[in-house]
Amino acid sequence: MFSKACEYGIKATIFIAINSSENRRVSPKEISEEIDSPQAFTAKILQALVRNNIVKSVRGAYGGFEIEKDKIATTKLSQIVYAIDGDGIYKGCGLGLHTCDENHPCPVHDKFKVIRDELKHMLENTSLEQLALDIKSGVAFLKV
Asked: Which CATH class is domain 4-136?
């Protein structure tokens, strides 16, 4: 459903949020190891997250990536997805057809539209804070 870059972006942002809530910045190397992503690929993803004001990059000896504590609570999963993949997930055809809309639907158009709408609702109503708290409490996991 999400691109590999988006999956890594979500995991990276959650990892950064967990550490930021404990007043700790994380290095690109730590992030790539935690999310099991190649370092160069992780760096590109982090650049997109910085450009979209989701994470903050701090240079220097005590530098790294962080998220301001108040932004952890207000950042929604939809913002991360948009920063990496854009809004195509809300518009694409379930079968990948170039022309698929209400006037010219594919065979799964109506069913896929419901799923797409539910996904949009979930992404827009799930905060980074919720995800980080689930991981910190052991309810959910970033890796096995």
From this structure: mainly alpha
Smallest Cα–Cα separation from 31: which of 129, 18, 23? 18
Does the reported pTM lie above 0.85? yes
Tally the C-alpha atoms within 13 A of residue 95's C-alpha that lie toward its C-beta. Answer: 12
39-51 and 77-85 helices cross at what angle (nearest 10)?
110
How many CB atoms neighbour CB 99 within 10 A? Answer: 9
The mean pLDDT value for 96-114 works out to: 93
pLDDT score of 92:
84
Transcribe 72-116 into DSSP letters. HHH-BHHHHHHHHHTTGGGT--TT--SS-SSSS--TTHHHHHHHH
DSSP-based three-state secondary structure for 26: strand
